[in-house]
Metallo-beta-lactamase domain-containing protein (Mesotoga prima), 199 residues
Amino acid sequence: DHLYLPNFGYRMDRYNASYDRLPALSVLANPTVLSMISSSVYFDPEKTVLIEAEPYKEVVVNGCSIVPIPAVHKVKEGEQPYIFLLKKGGKSFFYATDTGPIDESSLKLLRELLDDPIDIVALDSTLGFMKEVTFPYHHTAEQVIDSMHKMREIGIIDDSSLVVAHHFSHYPNPPQRDLEEFYRQFGISVASDALLLDI
């Protein structure tokens, strides 16, 4: 999601009573973002590992394979937003939130990285039932359904994959119950606070 440097401050010794037990935080980002972090007053090299991300290039962090996929999102010049494919123990999770619809060429490159269809996809659903889309950096409900169909056609997901609508803006989305009723007809689950998924 978005970079907010003061969040790193909460991990610093003066603000964190459990600092000694705090594990190192691995940050996977493009060089511009890594430079912003490393030059920040909030950067703690003792507790932060900076890893350069390259599109479609696998990195292993704590035994988990992570593949950055370019997101469609508004950022500052020089920054590159990513969504991530995670693989571990034969299971896979595609975290595709805070992004507009992913173009077909990117989806095909993603497919080449897979041995099997993805187990779980969390898909951006920010714009809900908006009809006129002037902001291409998120999905409407209709685009969620279109993206799911494209992923299925390309072979990224299949009928056993769990697709979860995620990252909602309150303005264009109805209450949770109505969202669940709408997405259920397409075989899509709806995220909620504190949702746990077992892969």
